[in-house]
Fold MFS transporter.
Amino acid sequence: MSTDTPRAADPRRRLSLVFIGLAQLMIVLDITIVNIALPSAQRDLGVSDGDRQWVITAYTLAFGSLLLLGGRIADLTGRRRAFLIGLTGFAVASALGGAAPDFGVLLAARALQGVFAALLAPAALSLLSVSFTEPAERAKAFAVFGAIAAGGGAIGLVLGGVLTEYLDWRWCLYVNVFIAAVAAAGRYVLPADTPAGRDRARLDIPGVLLAVCALVAVVYGCSEAEAEGWDSPAVVGPLVAGGVLLTVFVLVERRVAHPLLPLRVVLDRTRGSAYLAVAVATVGMFGMFLFLTYYMQLVKGYSAMLTGVAFLPMTAAVLVAAGGVAARLIPRVPPRALVAPGLLVAATGVALLVPLDPDSSYAAGVLPAELLVGFGMGLVMAPSMNYATHGVRAQEAGIASATVNTGQQIGGSLGTALLNTVAASATADHLAAHRDRPPGPDLRDAALVEGFSDAFLVAAVILASASLLVAALMNTPRPKGRAAAEGTEPTMTHIG
């Protein structure tokens, strides 16, 4: 059993949600907004096709590999302090990237963004966790946070398209400076840091080194899979090394007195299932963003801005599910009653994209899938973000927050690499099977869509399988009596 005694509710906590949400939005926006700006940046800075992926990889490598360290630093130094340092650093790195005179400076700025995002993301989520302890309000707060996590990427596509088309690609980075400045203005309404006890003043150096090296290896291996193929030594080597290092990391964490990641945080079935749900949901979400972006721009001829606008219904569906449905049900039903069906709804939406062809209309071929995926993601992300930090000790909120963010990053990296490989292979097979046809746009479009369809099928199967797994594994704390419905703090029991 794990219980926490909630602190007295801060009357400013609702206002703090605005600033914490802005910081989270900035992080999520940066995942997709730079993707839209990348072609223009590539032309402007003279970046080769082979090197352009590093603008994305530099960020994901730093972000994904340093999250556990960032979460522990937030626990040790104070969540508000870590939040403000992360915001400031992210803004400075964004300004540096926007002003980059060459590719090297842009790459360094993107890596620096990832470093500070790894500190900011877990600090933001843990601040939310300690600010909202009463079940009904906590449900609403995490519904907002989950909606941002699930729908912010689509907003990034719209904003990136608008800024790139009407201003300049550099504004896709400069915009973070303004968002960070507004978010930092909320420092006075954020919960104050509590002094660290002696047992919190130690950092698990072996655990840090093992975790960082392992996650760098896994994220790097996944990022190289698209260009090199899964059987390449440049991919197999890092992935195997990452697996070995993660195994050693677990063995070390079982023995050290003050582990970087206390295994009880992950081994609790509710929290562990929440991490799994977020990781797998990210696979489906990134798959949809990636291949629908290609489909709408390359096959249908949409502009970058129109492509972003075309994703807005998905964001609306996320808001309805997270804010309108999940926020009301989180205090009343077990989380698996939302997460498992949410994954299944998202799987259905992705499956609707399998029969897509070059002549499919947006209204009939894309929109229904977007609405289902968005609704499913809203049901998944709000309770998963809530229960990712549920029941942990106050001094472990940062590392629990970092763990769910790590799951999101690893899920995105693995999913993108896997689905892109499936799509590329199916496209190549289609071209080989129709080499007797004259080359041209029709053959190219048919081959691309064939690849997208295969990738959508794999993503749908992954989401549906995860739905069954979460339904079976998620061991859920149940509110006793009418406590949750009446807005009082229930007693929760965890059987890990």
Residues 204-259 form one domain. The chain has two domains: 13-190+260-475, 204-259. Residues 1-8, 481-496 have pLDDT under 50 and may be disordered.
